[in-house]
Fold this protein.
Amino acid sequence: MASSSPAPERVLQRLDWTVIRRLDGLLQGEYRSLFRGSGVDLAGLREYQPGDDTRYIDWNVTARTDTPYVREYHEERELTAWFLLDVSPSVDFGTVGGDRQKRTVLIDFVATLARVLTRRGNRIGALVDGGGTPRTVPVASGRMAVLRLVDGLLAEPALDAAPATDLTALLERAVRTIKRRSLIVIVSDFISQPGWERPLHLLNQRNELLAVRLVDPRERELPDVGLVLVRDAETGEQLEIDTGDAAFRRRFAAAAQAREAEIDRAFARAGVEVLALSTDEDLVGAIVRMAARRRRRRAVA
């Protein structure tokens, strides 16, 4: 790790003071709004009610009784959480201050959730993809597990260029690796080669899934600031552009809108709700917003 990188312990201390304590007050411990886990011990059967998760229908009993029944489970006191993390070159982008790259937001968000989870006795593991073969962080519990995860993310090199990101490799690796039903938190900007929605759908069918998309406001709209030198984070190509050209700004916005629409369609095909996390958003406010949105969704399910 470069000497200029903050120590993992320092990162956790900062987040404990500036983020987690505020979350404890605002959420009052209701972190189940973000992640609830799933038990494995069968508690019993009951008749299906509109809004029940169809994955829990017991088809054998349903066939015998001609009435749909669903299985109910005792909730586990502990759960296993897997973080699927995209640290490919496109996450090294940010326009809000000098230290608010998408990578920085990813590290703070993941460290916060990992800390909250392990405080409650849960175990965490991770698959980290920097553009090559995904790296595995073994499942473990406790503060040391969080420090190990944060240390690995801080040490992950920022690449000048790499082959175009393909999230499919990360998600397919997760399908093969995660055998037991778990909480899965995938954090990415989802700027990727197409096709990743298929393994994402499979992971969502088998697990509790939280998909978080990293975004930056300047990826959608350019300000008029004259001539600027920009670099494609994925390819390393540099290009001078004139942001004072209104026609260019319109073309940029149209291309960004088309990209956003395709990403939205991919999530729809996967049957997954995605939550946005922007570089210009306060992390505490973003997590509270995510919890409220998931709480409302479950209330109407």
Q: What stands out?
A: The chain has two domains: 8-33+78-216+277-300, 41-74. The beta strands are 41-47, 69-74, 80-86, 123-129, 135-141, 183-188, 208-215, 227-231, 238-242, 274-278. Residues 41-74 form one domain. The CA atoms of residues 53 and 194 lie 28 Å apart.
